[in-house]
Write a structure and sequence with these properties.
alpha/beta, Rossmann fold, Helicase, Ruva Protein, domain 3, 2 domains, two-stranded antiparallel ribbon, 15 helices, 14% strand, binds S-adenosylmethionine
Length: 349
């Protein structure tokens, strides 16, 4: 999908297919239960678009559990990403919060808007969420932050969306998202199993794995399993650095994970253009085990390492520094999830 920049607009019309089928989208009695969603969608003539990650949640208990996880009160504002046919949207709206739901598929946005029209604190915008800052979407709907972000995210753009949310200003106070299970684990990390993604997330927020969701909860069921993750935004970044320094810090992280199976003392000479004795010295000063792999270091280790390199060999960081921010790329090697992986794949031998 090529990026388009236009004012997010409510799709005003009821879909012609819905009209032809004579579906009432106003009265509550016409609103299908999520369990009936496949039927409802079939009646609307909706064919899920794989390219847009359209796997719709049809399990009422799971829908309710996700909305509960968002812990909403009627004073809250929710930005929902990817409203689809509105199963989750309705659960959020039922809790009395103000809901701004964004959906790229105009036709689906239109039919869901019609179906849920009884909820007067709900607005559905037809827009590509990545074309706008969250604050622009809230402004378009005429609501003010603070806000919570919730979504059963389209898998193909999970990480850009999470990145956009975490780096936005103002950022959501809390993010509750359903994502591919591997990505969920990667986001949360943990002792000796950090990833580029988990460390990037932890600069801005505290991630927590909430619960798994089986593929049978979706229609059509995806091939992968899913899980719900909550990220609570920190008041300020966990690393106390200026934005330009933070960019260099993320560069160091990327360099460290460039060869994740290697011991860290073997990674930096090549990645930072430093001599091996310089790297060993910096690791010693920073108190980092030279035979550790990147995944074994936590955020505090990386901060110490950054500060040490910056003090002792700033050229190692500067020569490679590119203006970049957190890395939420999809490119990491999933094998790194295996705790045993470093021992099994020892590239240093
Ligand atoms: N929330 C619904 C549910 O739980 O059943 C739908 C979830 S489905 C996994 C993801 C939704 O995100 C789809 O409806 C898809 O059309 C929408 N979507 C995909 N890319 C998008 C984008 N760039 N901006 C906004 N919505 C998008």
């Amino acid at each position: 999908m090529s990026p388009r920049r236009s004012t997010p607009k409510p799709a005003r019309r009821q879909t012609s297919r819905a009209r032809r089928l004579g579906l009432s989208t106003k009265s509550k009695s016409a609103a299908p239960k999520p369990d009936d969603m496949p039927d409802y969608l079939r009646r609307l003539g909706v064919v899920p678009r794989k390219a847009l990650g359209q796997h719709f949640l049809v399990d009422e208990l799971i829908l309710s559990a996700i909305a509960d996880a968002a812990a909403l009160t009627s004073d809250d504002v929710v930005l929902e990403i990817g409203a689809g046919p509105g199963g989750l949207t309705e659960e959020l709206a039922k809790r009395g919060a103000t809901v701004v739901a964004v959906e790229i598929d105009e036709e689906l946005a239109g039919s869901t808007r019609s179906r849920l029209s009884e909820y007067d604190k709900l607005q559905i915008l037809a827009a590509d969420v990545l074309d706008f800052e969250p604050i622009e979407l809230l402004n378009e709907a005429g609501v003010q932050p603070p806000y919570v972000a919730v979504g059963n995210l389209p898998y193909y753009i999970t990480q850009p969306i999470v990145r956009r949310l975490l780096e936005s200003d103002p950022a959501p106070t809390r993010i509750v998202v359903l994502v591919q299970r591997e990505v969920a684990h990667r986001m949360v990390g943990g002792p000796r199993r950090e990833s580029l993604l988990s460390l990037s997330v932890k600069v801005y927020g505290a991630p927590r794995l909430l619960f798994d969701v089986p593929s049978t909860a979706f229609w059509p069921p995806p091939k992968v399993q899913s899980a719900v993750v909550e990220i609570t935004r920190l008041d300020r970044p966990a690393i106390d650095l200026q934005p330009e320094e933070l960019a260099v810090f993320f560069h160091l992280l990327r360099a460290g994970f460039a060869q994740p199976r290697k011991q860290i003392h073997n990674v930096f000479p090549e990645e930072l253009g430093l001599e091996p004795p310089q790297v060993r010295h910096a690791l010693e000063v920073a108190g980092i085990d030279p035979v550790a792999r990147a995944q074994h270091l936590d955020l505090a280790d990386w901060e110490r390492l950054y500060r040490t390199f910056n003090e002792l060999y700033p050229h190692g960081l500067e020569m490679n520094a590119v203006p970049a921010s957190a890395d939420f790329s999809e490119g990491e090697d999933l094998e790194e999830w295996d705790d045993d992986a470093p021992d099994v794949h020892d590239d240093d031998e």
